[in-house]
Amino acid sequence: MKAAVWEGPNDLQIKNVPCPVPSENEVLIETRAVGICGTDLEIFKGRFKHIVPPLIIGHEGGGTVQEIGRGVSRIKKGDRVIAECILYCGACYYCRQGDFGLCDDSKVIGISGAQGEYAEYFTVPEKNCYILPEKISWPEACLIDSLADTVHGFKKVNMPLYSTVAVFGPGPGGLFFCSLAKMRGASKVYLVGTREKRLRLGPRFGADLAININKDNAAEIIKEDTGGRGVDVVIEASGSERALKDGMSILKKGGTLQIYGVFGAAVPVDLEMIQLYEFNVVGSAGSDYATSIKLVDEGAVNVKDLVSHKFRLEDLPGAFSSGLIEKREDNYMKGVVLF
Ligand SMILES: [Zn+2]
Ligand SMILES: [Zn+2]
């Protein structure tokens, strides 16, 4: 079968590799669609030192079940499924508490310990498969993973009724956070970022005010708008040190800060603020596929508008090396690979 194999920094190649065989409790999926994630780009660039080539990357996809392994009973041949990418062990201390994202012995499809989905076929444990409702198209299905991560992150946030919320980073995750905040009854949602075209999508995802920090002083505007107090909740979804600093400066005393963006390295944080202002700081490492699928199926969260680029498997090396994805050229928002 054909697969996109990462061979080292800036080196992704389409190769012919053996088709995987499903082990016990696994299914073989004929890939139909895979979302391109920021993590793929980081791997492509060689920025994660612990990830070793060769590796088939891709982890936000699904397809049609072609073959089932021994012991598989719920999923049938021909089912349309989306695959949750965290391969949790199911037996460790955290898994037994239902905190699969914190599993002590996890692997992640296309990232660590398991081959990925930029391939004509891939295998995945049955327990990671979710049946895709008929109404959800394959390009839309590619956003389920991002939304599932956001839903999980949102569940970690203690958000009082009719709260004010500031989201930093207008990527898919940030926009989804805006939608979820509104859904949970936020009185006002601020979306803060640097990319004008992405910020303009804000209102379609429930943002009441989108602020471009290259033009305006977001911290000042939000402070003033909240009577000098700041917001109840800050979601850091950009992975930028500047956003983190701005976010902490507009979080009200006793407010909650969600660290959702990927920083990739340690950044300085003013701990005294956390101590003096009694900030609640929460993280996010898991996902909630069941809720994410329901939100997409019922049209509660807009995912269609985020698909900006459609690729074929053969296009992938070029898409990564051209800078299109990295520089988000040509209004790039979310790319999907369709088979
Ligand atoms: Zn991802
Ligand atoms: Zn575990």
Structure, explained:
With 339 residues, this protein is of the alpha/beta class. It has 2 domains: 2-146 and 287-338, Medium-chain alcohol dehydrogenases, catalytic domain (Quinone Oxidoreductase, Chain A, domain 1), CATH 3.90.180; 157-282, Rossmann fold. It is 24% helix and 28% strand. It contains 11 helices and 19 strands. It has helices at 38-45, 93-96, 138-141, 144-155, 172-183, 196-199, 218-225, 241-249, 271-276, 289-297, 316-321, and strands at 2-8, 11-16, 26-35, 55-56, 60-68, 80-83, 86-87, 107-109, 113-114, 121-125, 129-131, 164-168, 188-193, 209-212, 231-236, 251-259, 280-282, 307-311, 334-338. Strands 3, 5, 6, 10, 11, 18 and 19 form a 7-stranded mixed β-sheet that branches. Strands 14-13-12-15-16-17 form a 6-stranded parallel β-sheet, with helices on both faces. Helix 11 (316-321) links the parallel strand 18 and strand 19 (334-338). Helix 4 (144-155) crosses helix 5. The longest helix has 12 residues, at 144-155. The protein binds zinc ion (2 copies). The site of one zinc ion has 9 residues, from helix 2.
- Main sheet specs: 7 strands, mixed
Overall 3D form: globular
Low-confidence stretches: none
Range of strand content: 25-35%
Number of domains: 2
Give me the CATH fold name of the largest domain: Quinone Oxidoreductase, Chain A, domain 1
Q: Which compounds are bound in this model?
A: zinc ion
The SSE string, one letter per element, is EEEHEEEEHEEEEHHEHEHEHEHEHEHEHE
Q: State the helical fraction.
A: 10-25%
> What is the assigned CATH homologous superfamily of the largest domain?
Medium-chain alcohol dehydrogenases, catalytic domain
Main structural class: alpha/beta
